[in-house]
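Task card 7
Instruction: Convert sequence to structure tokens.
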Amino acid sequence: MDKRLTDIISVLQLEALEINLFRGESRDIGSPQVFGGQVLGQALMAAYRTVEARHCHSLHAYFLRRGDFNAPIVYQVDRSRDGHSFSSRRVVAIQHGEQIFHMACSFQTEESGLEHAALMPDVPSPEALKDISDYPKAMLEVLPEVVRRHFTMERPFEFRPVTMRNYSQPEVASPTRCVWFRAVDALPDGDAALPRCLLAYMSDYHLLDVTTQPHALSFVDLQMASIDHAMWFHRPFRFDDWLLYAIDSPNASGARGLARGMIFTRDGTLVASTVQEGLIRLHSKTKRAV
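Output:
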């Protein structure tokens, strides 16, 4: 297995400290704090470790403080309820003695019922698109070093955006984006929780950035941070096959942006939905410029 994928899987495999208490390592992915998706994925894995024969169908999380990627994170799980069909869990992430994140999630036994779903957007296939790591060199050279590092460092996922955004000279664009993604290698079989935890991890990519597109700005010009994140898992999927993340932003106000996402398999099956609100605060120098 590719070492990048092996590493992210190891990050999600938490150490059990006590009943309902787990510890996870952190990784530096080029952001100034722990990547929010990492905390989402680890918190969901901690909850999964307290549930049997049920799968997460929804989660609702709040990011309270910036995480330190130089230190481990402790996850405390509250087994709120185990009913006939559903189980509810609350997870609190603690670092340096303070809560940095909390999440409520619900699990359900497999059950059949009514079916309908949104249609996948008509977009080019992933084979017709370039990976985000192929970001044009001329554009990279004029970006700040911390931003260049974000684009050039190795990651366990392939990302192929339908439209490659110019972060050095952003233009006004509609608040929509479609990105194909998949794991860089095949996942091991037999771990039903892993694909959903990986999808929770990945779901924090791209969302908030879409809220800046109508304003000819990007994360280079703004202080940005996830505030809350909700996710619903609708149907089974394989994370090592191509999935499409179709994102739109219906609103930005009060220094906050709202983004929604739908995740489809290659054949157009809707497998998950996301919603996130985050801070999009103008830097002081950007305020003077605009």
